[in-house]
Every structure is written in structure tokens, then in C-alpha cells.
Design brief:
The protein is an all-alpha fold. The protein is about 70% helix and about 0% strand. The longest helix has 20 residues. It starts with 18 loop residues before the first helix and ends with a helix.
């Protein structure tokens, strides 16, 4: 399985790091690139959560609504719920 490399670290361009630190920095960049999509999702979640706080909406309220929708759509996981939502969007586009 080939792995796409998002970060390329040229030790000559990393100023202020010793040779032992360059290896650690390179490993950190590799790990971050592998987890980039997961970290982006987490960042979006926490930003949304902060916005909810700003609007005075409790995260418990959001979780209760999510659980209610999951029950109504018979979705066991959030991934199942997304499949239902994406399937509904596809059906709507086909109607036009």
C-alpha cells in the first residue's frame, strides 16, 4: 500500500535545530501528515463546540438531538447517519 507523503522536510531549510532534533522533527511531520484528516475533523468539532457555547446552546442539547435523529433513522453510529444523509442528498439530486 503506497502512502502519500504530505510533508517533505529538508534539513538544510530547518534553522535552529541540531542534527538529532531534525530526525525528531521529521518524524513529527510524518505523523502529523498521517493524521491530518483526523486532526482537521477534531479541530472542526471543537470550533463548532465553542460556537455553540457562544450561542448559549448546550452540547447536551446537540447530543440529544443527534441521538434522536439516529434513533429515527436506525443509525447505530455517526458513520451510518452520514451514509443516510449522503444517500438522501443523492436521491434529491437525481429527482431534478
Amino acid at each position: 500500500m503506497s502512502q502519500r507523503q504530505l510533508w517533505v522536510v529538508n534539513p538544510d531549510l530547518v534553522y535552529g535545530l541540531g542534527q538529532d532534533e531534525v530526525a525528531m522533527f521529521t518524524e513529527l511531520c510524518r505523523t502529523w501528515s498521517e493524521r491530518l484528516s483526523r486532526n482537521s475533523i477534531r479541530l472542526t468539532y471543537y470550533r463548532s463546540r465553542n460556537r455553540l457555547d457562544d450561542l448559549g446552546i448546550s452540547i447536551k442539547t446537540v447530543e440529544a438531538h443527534r441521538a434522536s435523529i439516529m434513533d429515527k433513522t436506525n443509525s447505530g453510529t455517526v458513520a451510518d447517519l452520514m451514509r443516510v444523509v449522503l444517500g438522501a442528498q443523492t436521491e434529491t439530486k437525481q429527482d431534478y
